[in-house]
Amino acid sequence: MTVPPNRPIYLDCHATTPVDPRVLAAMRPWWEQNFANPGSVEHAMGRAAEEAVENARSHVADLIGADAKEIVLTSGATEANNLAIKGAARFAAAQGSGRRRIVTVATEHKCVLESVRALAEEGFEPVFLPVGASGLLDPAVLRTAVDDGTLLVSVMAVNNEIGVIQDLATIGAIAKEAGALFHTDAAQAAGRIPLDVEEIRADLLSLSAHKMYGPKGIGALYVRRRPRVRIAPLFSGGGQERGLRSGTLPAPLVVGLGEAARIAATEGLLDAGRIAGQRDLFLAALTAAVPGVVQNAADAPRVTGNLNIAFPGGVPAQAIMAAAPGVCVSTGSACSSAEVEPSYVLQAIGLDDPRARATLRIGIGRFTSPADVQQAAAMLAEGWRRAISDMSRAAE
């Protein structure tokens, strides 16, 4: 995929990825030719749609080392996270469980943090653990927080702003030692790093198609079958998805999710290597053009496409973006972009206010070219210089 001449260079792949042309091609027939409801199994078109859905479900399962029967289709990772956290808590409460503590991390996606906070109103005990300067959760800190009253531990696989990869295998083992369920938000991890639900001992895992070159509006929740994990549905309906997520399945979107998962499973390592090369090109070009740029959480393991960069000179990131409109980057999570305050993730890793406000999130992806990253680095450097000049004139 090449960038048309008048189109901005897109480096915001943590907010969303472009749809892979192969994914789009796989979806198109289910809009144009066979538009049947997958639940209408009384006729041939409905059965064909159902078969396509189940095939896609298998591809999602293969991506994370699960069984297709453990995949519940949702509208995306936000719904999957809500279903996992609230569903697990409410089912346990309905069964009379005395476990009321829910442990998560201060740098989680807002939908996880707000789900955990909301459960406090239902009598649960939310615990929000800090991270170090690397953005990583210290396993020792987790061990002190979990006990025999802990119901659920929820820790994201890859942070959506700084791209750091948590030690899920260790976290999962600690949760299991305490007899707690382990959930991970893998929206930023699926397709970017290898994932195996058995290896990390996950009971619940959330993912979203549009973070791995699939369509928006579709995702999935892995729910372990052996030993069986039970969750309560969020809403009532026709009982689709084993009663956990009622509603007509959007067959084209499900097919797109499945194709995106299939491609990720077969090409993920190749993608990661190529993207790492583009990242290194970008960072070298930007560092040469803007001495003093700093990579936040630089020492932590991270996904190859992520750079979280603080610019020098006290220039707000918003001013740099405004001065470089030909590059699509962001200051942090797309779900928090309307907020005036600096990123809570950057605050959690100890960045002071000026540095946090001067930080841009760079997301390099499958279709980013060497020319893209070199040109983008030059444009951002020029934007930084313009912003510096504007600040100096305003101060006179």
TrEMBL record:
Keyword Iron-sulfur attributed: yes
Catalytic activity: (sulfur carrier)-H + L-cysteine = (sulfur carrier)-SH + L-alanine
Xref: Pfam families: Aminotran_5 (PF00266)
Keyword set includes Signal: no
Domain Aminotransferase class V: 9-375
Listed SUPFAM superfamilies: PLP-dependent transferases
Molecular-function annotations in GO: transaminase activity
Cofactor(s) needed by this chain: pyridoxal 5'-phosphate
Keywords carried by this UniProt record: Aminotransferase, Iron, Iron-sulfur, Metal-binding, Pyridoxal phosphate, Transferase
Its biological purpose: Catalyzes the removal of elemental sulfur atoms from cysteine to produce alanine. Seems to participate in the biosynthesis of the nitrogenase metalloclusters by providing the inorganic sulfur required for the Fe-S core formation.
Family in the record: Belongs to the class-V pyridoxal-phosphate-dependent aminotransferase family. NifS/IscS subfamily.
Designated name of the protein: Cysteine desulfurase
